[in-house]
Q: What sequence folds into this?
């Protein structure tokens, strides 16, 4: 059965991607023959070109001016559609435009690297078909339709306005437009939907190099051709899955820029999403590509930075907007964020499916690793932080596991190694499992600087709320490129949450390397424990299985278990090895498992109606404190609860410890309860009734609240026997129980007046009316004031006290504390054992009688005090002990 569970767990591991169906428009449309022909045809023309721009009536624009100004003006140049060089990873970078209404106009304004550049524009309708350039370009638009390349061409003698010459300063960095743009190419939309724009400039390097760019661009949707676009306004209609830029044609400070870009990622749940703001600060990469995806670099380099020489690559996946997405759009409506993921059934278990301990330092290939197992109601991202530096906090010195999780069961393997890949020493290591949604990565390649000097670098924010933006945890791992690690994450509104590197020069960690920054949202955290052990052997409990004794860890968690230790255990006998829990109705499966000696010998329980205590024998020779915890199922619901537990500390070399439960109610005398004790080398809480522990032991017991009736009578004065049988009161009193033998309770309650020097004999009758046998039964009877225990009051070799069980022979016992019998007298003024549970001082002395004990530990040789089944049955379910006192002179 266990091998089947193991196979199930191994098969449940999964790595999945997020649902991208919501964004089916983000992927480039299939190439048409005419699109492929355009690049080769334009590269051979060598014609001069100009472009468009200037001022008039309001509309919404997006382009260069949304990317922000640098030290030298608008210094973020857009690479053309087919640009390819060693710093951008792909061609075919279509720009998407959301058009809300038929008849709206897409306005395109451009400046090439040079005023003589040949540029072209190609437009595709939402269906993927090319625009009808003969009928869908507004009159007066500069340029012409070139049927040979099926694109709108801008070249030669296109008109310029006075402001355009200032705006199109080209590589000298254009400045912001003053007013609206007056000479765009105006493409008239025939239907609502998402259009694709391809921008071409092949005059500089024939698709390669650094200058096949647009030093200025603006794409604006207006309601008609008579409305001029305002390039300073944001409407969130323009997006792409890849933006390729040349920042000022330098990676020095003049090339740095500040920009806010907006990325939409699926929320994991239907009709939800996240909108992330990529906040670039003093970002100086020169030639670079901005893409967005869910894992960063492609495997095997996902969720980490990487050397440029590693051959790493990344995919285009999510839409990137130049302004906050239009909240009123009907074409791609802004969706709410999802509800947080529901994380359940979290536990850690070894690869043999036994418990939450692994032993990579012990037998090879036996429990060398384990799995974090959890269930989710939605696919998302997991982050698991294991406190491997053992500082009781989750920080960047810890081992962190990141990955994708699926809806349903998940299992994530951990090999017991820390941040430096070395196997950790034995110990308990807390772990935090975090699940989030909407994971987004920004990978920068060959970006020399982010921030620079004392400036803070880039950060990612949540921009899909009522506030403009909300800080979130930013993560990165630059250790493969000799940088910092921030896998635990830090908030974007703190310096620690800003991903900062470089100083506007070559040779830093960003130079020719990949640097990844990522976030995920609506995180839910839970904690669990892992244990690295120096042994593969475990000790389990044996209470009925409702207490989690033999819990299948693939379904309900880790059963109570401990790693066997010769230096730390309950009792004096080290625990034996078990493969699993041993649930039995009497909680004696571990006792009766055929392994000798019995290792369940650690405790005596003593109770009354409002409190319960356990004197626990322990072995702790570890050199350090250990921790003891106990639970009793007082409400008898078949499970242990934190409210039923108590804990105590066991100092090094202690041999006993006492657990006491107080303020109890509802205990029924004679009823049976189940108890669990655990000793561990790491702290325990009252919530730790199940789960794997480190070095120590677990023992389960069936206990009962004893219903032992006691009736005390005066049975002789000066050796004159009092043979009356008196009723002490109502029918509910102890002396009226029907299981007493007939006429058994001989003696008087009030024997009249006595004189100094008189001898008074007391007899204490006892009867177990409980449903089960009792053990550890101790009677403590105080000597009354003005009286003294009379020694040698009876004949025989030990004539101090007499005891009789049922109809057996009467035994003469000694009041001395010796091994011959189980009676002892504790003189007045001496502290009584806590197990006597008597109130007040021991003024005149106390007689202690243990009716039960271990075998062969003195008379009477009774190990269990059986419950009575009828009148006088069984024979040793009742009896008496008696002693004599002398009235003081």
A:
């Amino acid at each position: 059965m266990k091998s089947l569970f193991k196979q199930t767990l191994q098969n449940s591991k999964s790595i999945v991607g997020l649902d991208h169906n919501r964004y089916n428009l983000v992927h480039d449309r299939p190439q048409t023959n005419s699109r492929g022909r355009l690049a080769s045809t334009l590269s051979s023309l060598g014609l001069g070109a100009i472009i468009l721009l200037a001022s008039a009536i309001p509309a919404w624009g997006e382009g260069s001016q949304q990317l922000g100004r640098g030290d030298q003006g608008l210094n973020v140049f857009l690479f053309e559609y087919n640009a390819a060089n060693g710093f951008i990873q792909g061609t075919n970078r279509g720009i998407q435009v959301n058009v809300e209404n038929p008849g709206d106009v897409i306005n395109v304004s451009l400046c090439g690297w040079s005023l003589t550049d040949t540029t072209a524009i190609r437009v595709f309708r939402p269906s993927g078909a090319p625009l009808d350039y003969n009928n869908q370009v507004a009159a007066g638009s500069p340029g012409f339709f070139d049927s040979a390349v099926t694109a709108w061409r801008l070249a030669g003698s296109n008109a310029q306005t006075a402001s355009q010459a200032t705006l199109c300063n080209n590589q000298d960095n254009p400045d912001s437009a003053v007013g609206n743009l007056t000479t765009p190419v105006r493409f008239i939309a025939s239907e609502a939907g998402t259009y694709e724009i391809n921008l071409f400039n092949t005059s500089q390097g024939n698709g390669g190099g650094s200058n096949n760019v647009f030093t200025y661009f603006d794409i604006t949707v207006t309601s008609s051709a008579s409305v001029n676009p305002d390039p300073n306004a944001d409407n969130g209609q323009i997006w792409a899955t890849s933006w390729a830029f040349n920042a000022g044609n330098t990676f020095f400070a003049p090339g740095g820029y500040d920009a806010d870009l907006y990325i939409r990622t699926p929320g994991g749940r239907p009709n939800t999403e996240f909108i992330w703001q990529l906040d670039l600060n003093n970002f100086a990469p020169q030639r670079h590509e901005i893409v967005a995806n869910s894992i960063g670099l492609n495997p095997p380099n996902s969720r980490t930075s990487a050397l440029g020489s590693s051959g790493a690559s990344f995919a285009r996946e999510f839409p990137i907007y130049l302004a906050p997405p239009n909240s009123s759009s009907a074409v791609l409506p802004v969706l709410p964020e999802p509800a947080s993921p529901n994380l359940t059934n979290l536990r850690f278990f070894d690869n043999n499916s036994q418990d939450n301990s692994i032993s990579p330092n012990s037998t090879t290939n036996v429990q060398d690793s384990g799995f974090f197992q959890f269930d989710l109601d939605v696919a998302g991202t997991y982050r698991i932080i294991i406190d491997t530096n053992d500082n009781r906090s989750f920080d960047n010195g810890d081992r962190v596991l990141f990955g994708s999780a699926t809806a349903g069961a998940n299992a994530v393997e951990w090999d017991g190694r820390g941040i430096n890949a070395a196997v950790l020493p034995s110990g308990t290591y807390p772990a935090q499992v975090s699940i989030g949604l909407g994971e987004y990565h920004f990978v920068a390649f060959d970006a020399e600087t982010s921030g620079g000097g004392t400036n803070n670098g880039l950060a990612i924010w949540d921009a899909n709320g009522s506030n403009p933006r909300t800080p979130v945890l930013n993560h990165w791992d630059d250790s493969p490129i000799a940088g910092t690690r921030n896998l635990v994450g830090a908030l974007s509104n703190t310096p620690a949450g800003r991903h900062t590197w470089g100083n506007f020069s070559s040779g830093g960690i960003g130079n020719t390397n990949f640097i990844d920054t990522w976030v995920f949202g609506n995180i839910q955290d839970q904690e669990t424990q892992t244990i690295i052990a120096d042994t593969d052997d475990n000790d389990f409990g044996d209470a009925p299985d409702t207490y989690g004794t033999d819990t299948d860890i693939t379904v309900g968690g880790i059963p109570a278990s401990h790693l066997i230790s010769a230096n730390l255990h309950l009792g004096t006998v080290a625990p034996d090895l078990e493969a699993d829990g041993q649930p039995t109705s009497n909680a004696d499966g571990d006792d009766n498992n055929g392994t000798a000696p019995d290792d369940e010998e650690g405790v005596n329980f003593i109770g009354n109606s409002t409190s319960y205590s356990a004197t626990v024998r322990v072995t702790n020779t570890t050199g350090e404190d250990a921790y003891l915890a106990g639970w009793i199922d007082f409400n008898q619901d078949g499970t242990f609860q934190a409210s039923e537990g108590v804990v105590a500390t066991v100092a090094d070399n202690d041999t006993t410890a006492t657990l006491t439960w107080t303020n109890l109610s509802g205990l029924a005398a004679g009823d049976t309860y189940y108890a669990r004790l655990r000793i561990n080398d790491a702290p325990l809480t009252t919530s730790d009734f199940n789960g794997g522990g480190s070095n120590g032991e677990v023992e389960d017991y069936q206990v009962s609240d004893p219903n032992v009736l006691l009736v005390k009578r005066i049975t002789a004065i000066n050796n004159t026997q009092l043979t009356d049988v008196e009723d002490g009161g109502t029918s509910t009193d102890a002396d009226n129980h029907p299981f007493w033998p007939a006429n058994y309770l001989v003696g008087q309650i009030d024997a009249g007046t006595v004189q100094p020097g008189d001898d008074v004999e007391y007899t204490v009758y006892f009867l177990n009316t409980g449903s089960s046998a009792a053990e550890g039964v101790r009677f403590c009877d105080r000597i009354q004031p003005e009286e003294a225990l009379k020694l040698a009051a009876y004949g025989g070799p030990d004539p101090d006290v007499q005891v009789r069980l049922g109809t057996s022979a009467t035994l003469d016992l000694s009041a001395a504390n010796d091994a011959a019998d189980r009676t002892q007298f504790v003189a007045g003024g001496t502290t009584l054992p806590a197990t006597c549970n008597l109130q007040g001082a021991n003024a005149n002395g106390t007689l202690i009688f243990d009716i039960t004990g271990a075998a062969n530990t003195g008379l009477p040789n009774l190990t269990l005090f059986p419950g009575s089944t009828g009148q006088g049955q069984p024979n040793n379910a009742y009896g008496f002990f008696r002693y004599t006192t002398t009235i003081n002179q």
About this structure: Confidence is low (pLDDT under 50) at residues 1-59, 157-164, 552-556, 591-600. The radius of gyration is 42 Å. The CA atoms of residues 559 and 691 lie 5 Å apart.
